[in-house]
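Quiz preparation item.
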């Protein structure tokens, strides 16, 4: 598989990046996923020596207040255009499902705008994400400093919210369609923001820590004239705080799909679980 990785990256980039007028290869956006050492987590189907289809798997521990769960995220689901409709992606997804169940994974999750395809395979949609936007008129910056990953991670794990543990590489993820990632810490040191930038748009992926620090972070994010998009968990402190900003509109997301794999997860509702963009593939 490592020998086929460049060919796979080229196919994935054509599908998810270049044909959609985006930039920055997926190999740079998800350095932990699309690398030779991670090939055991990339399932590929071949026909006649060519890659026909692929999926990537990211295993993780989901640390919820009541217990830890073994989760697996599925991403980069792809079939070469000429080979679509022949069952390749469904077979890879079923193979992943069987392997994950056999190794004791509790649940699988993925994020998609094509829920119909996955529903046929038993996945169900449950998303507590909210997507908001507003136009920032520009203005003075509050001078929040650049944050390092360690400082953010320390704040993040202190919260009582269920979360996925991150390492340094997690903070090098660049979600689509951003072209650059900003990580800022408020002057009081108690709050952080992670947002992406692309042309005249900013995409806030996380606003966390103490709400007392949000105003300065928001001021920095809005210092340039741009459209600011925000992702937040429904009912989170960040969502409540941002709702107080005049002109801020929200709508519900329906991207997260779940598949329970082990008994305890079958009995659990995934309703309140929110996986931030930086953790997604
Ligand atoms: C989505 C995709 C992976 C499906 O791959 P595939 O190998 O053609 O899938 P399969 O052959 O296993 O299944 C095809 C079936 O799913 C159905 N299907 C495909 N996309 C669908 C959708 N969005 N909603 C409902 N059904 C869908 C097809 O109609 C077909 O149904 P049929 O078997 O009754 O004829 C492929 O179309 C693709 O690579 N698309 C571009 C990349 C992409 O969008 N990936 C998903 C990212 S979340």
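Solution:
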């Amino acid at each position: 598989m490592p020998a086929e990785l460049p060919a796979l990256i080229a196919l994935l980039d054509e599908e998810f990046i270049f044909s959609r007028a985006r930039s920055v290869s997926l190999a740079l956006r998800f350095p932990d996923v699309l690398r030779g050492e991670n090939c055991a987590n990339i399932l590929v189907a071949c026909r006649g020596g060519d890659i026909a289809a692929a999926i990537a798997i990211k295993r993780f521990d989901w640390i919820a207040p009541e217990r830890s769960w073994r989760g697996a995220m599925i991403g980069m689901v792809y079939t070469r255009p000429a080979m679509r409709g022949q069952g390749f992606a469904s077979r890879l997804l079923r193979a992943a499902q069987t392997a994950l169940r056999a190794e004791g994974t509790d649940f699988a999750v993925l994020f998609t705008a094509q829920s119909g395809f996955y529903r046929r395979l038993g996945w169900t949609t449950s998303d507590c994400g909210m997507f908001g936007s507003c136009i920032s008129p520009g203005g003075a910056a509050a001078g929040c400093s650049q944050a390092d990953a360690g400082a953010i991670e320390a704040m993040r794990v202190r919260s009582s919210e269920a979360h996925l543990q991150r390492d340094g590489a997690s903070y090098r993820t660049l979600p689509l369609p951003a072209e650059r990632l900003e990580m800022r810490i408020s002057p009081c040191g108690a709050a952080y923001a992670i947002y992406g930038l692309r042309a005249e748009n900013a995409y806030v992926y996380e606003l966390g820590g103490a709400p007392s620090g949000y105003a300065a972070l928001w001021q920095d994010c809005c210092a340039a004239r741009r459209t600011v998009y925000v992702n937040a968990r429904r009912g989170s402190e960040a969502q409540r705080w941002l709702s107080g900003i005049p002109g801020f509109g929200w709508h519900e997301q329906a991207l997260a799909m779940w598949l329970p794999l082990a008994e305890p997860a079958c009995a659990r509702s995934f309703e309140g679980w929110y996986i931030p963009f930086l953790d997604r593939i």
